[in-house]
Amino acid sequence: MHLNRAIAALAGLLAALALAVPAHAIDIEQVYKFYCAQCHGLTGKGDGPNVGADFPVSPRNFTNAAEMNKLSDADIKNVILDGGPAASKSPMMPPWGKTLTAEEVDGLVKHLRKLCKCKGKQG
Ligand code: HEC
User: Fold this and answer.
1) Which residues, judged by CB distance below 6 Å to any ligand atom, belong to the binding site of ligand 1?
2) How many DSSP H helices and E strands does the chain contain?
3) Counting beta carbons within 10 angstroms of the beta carbon of residue 44, is it exposed (0 to 12), middle (13 to 18) or buried (19 or more)?
4) What are the CA-CA distances from residue 106 to residues 8, 78, 111, 115 (Å)?
5) What pLDDT digit, counting tens, does each position of 3-36 carry?
6) Distance between CA 99 and CA 119 in Å, rounded?
């Protein structure tokens, strides 16, 4: 009897603990900094530390609204998931579909829209 009560109490405690831990929230700026900034630059200007003279193509400048407006959100998402070649772009842009979660990819699309201060091609 006592043991059952102890187990019930323990189960209750664990449930309370699970509730106390905040839901996994992604910090998209950290994700961007970690995976994208070395090429696209911290502020998105395409001037990350990885980009040297031997870099054959410049990473997209995300603050260039005219260029970024040529892409729909779906276009951006595809390039992030499948890499440059999937959109007839350079393989210097790696695919991230196996690395990032769907939530992170959606967050990055929104983050890039913030950097360009543009809405992109609709549809
Ligand atoms: C190793 C360097 C590198 C990293 C890391 C990188 N990119 Fe790129 N990215 C590039 C290059 C280079 C291009 C330009 C390809 C071209 O124009 O042919 C590009 C292009 C893009 C484009 C397409 C823009 C367009 O005009 O079609 C998007 C969107 C993009 N990157 C998003 C990201 C995101 C988001 C991340 C992080 C998850 C990231 N990139 C990480 C190098 C990189």
Assistant:
1) 35-36, 38-40, 50, 57, 59-60, 67, 71, 76, 79-80, 84, 87, 89-90, 92-94, 96, 108
2) 6, 0
3) buried
4) 41, 11, 9, 15
5) 788 888 877 777 776 666 556 678 999 999 999 9
6) 26
CATH of the domain at 32: 1.10.760.10
Question: Which pTM was predicted?
Answer: 0.84
Is residue 1 in some structural domain?
no
Say if 65 falls within a structural domain.
yes
Domain that holds residue 99: 26-116
Pocket test for ligand 1, best of 26, 42, 60, 62 (most atoms within 8 A of CB): 60
- Residue labelled with tokens 């187990």: 7
